[in-house]
Structure formats: C-alpha cells, structure tokens
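Long-time lurker, first post. I've been practising inverse folding by hand and with some scripts of my own, and I keep getting stuck on stretches where the structure tokens seem ambiguous. Below is the full token string for one chain I'm working on. Before anyone asks, I'm not after the true native sequence, just a reasonable design that respects the backbone. If someone could post their per-position residues I'd love to compare against what I wrote down in my notebook.
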C-alpha cells in the first residue's frame, strides 16, 4: 500500500470505546474495523485494521486505496473533542505524516474529500488547526522497545506489544 493521504473522521456516535466500534463494523460483515486507528475519549490511540490493509472509511475520491483512516470516537458535530483526543490526534497525525511522507495538504477531514457528502468529522474538529500543528516543525519523543538483526524477531515483539494495546511499528535503520 502506498499511502499518500490521511483522512480524519469522527465516529459520529458516543461509543464506549474502540472495541464497540470494531464489533459494530464486524457485524456489518467487514473484515475488521474500517479505520486504521481510533482515538478514545481519554486520548488512548487504539490500532484498528493494520496499515497493510486497505481502509474501509472513505469511498469518495478512491480514498480507501490511498488514505490511512483515523477516527476520533464521539459525535464532534455536537461537542468538541476532549483535549486528550486533540493532543492524541496531533501526535498520531504527526507521526503518520513523517513515517509515510504524507504532505500536510493531503491530511483531510472526511468532508473535505471531493465527492464526500458528509459532515464528518464534525464541525468541532478544527482541521485547519490540525494542519497548522503538522506544518510546524516539532520534536517527537518516540519510545523504542528493541532492536533486532532479524525482522522476524522484530515482528514478534511488535505483535506482542500490539496485543497489549500499544500502537507499534517497525522502523528500519
Ligand atoms: Zn468519516
């Protein structure tokens, strides 16, 4: 997958957490939750479907084939995101933009995708502010968990951490 865009969503409902969204999407017959990441009310970032899998979050513009999808849990058409959610979204988006070399101009709210007829991610999610943060050079503090000469061992640790709910990725140096 070559990810050139990042599309931001809200779930539009006040689900208890990422698990509930995942169960809902699975009941629709989908392979997994449609987003690649979900941001819970307390700012916890929960991995959705893996980034190696095509998204199921934005048909418009062919975005399922070219965009990673992140969803903030809640109805942000009626309330503002919690500060922890805004902070988590900024951190996650900054990391994804850097890791996948996505241009800040291609970080879009769902409704900004040409052809999308939706209010998503809600009027209270400030997309211009998000892009403003991303355009600013900033320091990111990454936590490294291990370094291996064999990819298999790295994958093993990464999957163990993922099972524990950590958002994990492998960087090659
Ligand atoms: Zn959406």
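-- Answer (accepted) --
I ran through it position by position. Result:
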């Amino acid at each position: 997958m070559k990810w050139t865009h990042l599309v931001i969503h809200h779930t539009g409902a006040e689900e208890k957490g990422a698990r509930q969204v995942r169960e809902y999407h699975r009941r629709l017959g989908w392979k997994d939750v449609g987003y690649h990441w979900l941001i819970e009310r307390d700012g916890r970032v929960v991995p959705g479907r893996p980034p190696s899998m095509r998204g199921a979050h934005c048909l418009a513009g062919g975005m399922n084939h070219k965009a990673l999808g992140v969803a903030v849990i809640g109805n942000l058409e009626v309330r503002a995101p919690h500060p922890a959610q805004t902070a988590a979204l900024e951190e996650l988006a900054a990391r994804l933009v850097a890791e996948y070399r996505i241009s800040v101009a291609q970080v879009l709210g769902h409704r900004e995708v040409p052809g999308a007829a939706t209010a998503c991610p809600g009027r209270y999610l400030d997309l211009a502010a998000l892009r403003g943060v991303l355009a600013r050079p900033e320091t990111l503090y990454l936590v490294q968990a291990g370094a291996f000469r064999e990819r298999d061992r790295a994958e093993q640790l990464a999957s163990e951490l993922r099972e524990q709910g950590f958002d994990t990725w492998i960087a090659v140096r």
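A couple of notes from the structure itself: The chain has a mean pLDDT of 93. The longest helix spans residues 83-99. Happy to go over any region you disagree with.
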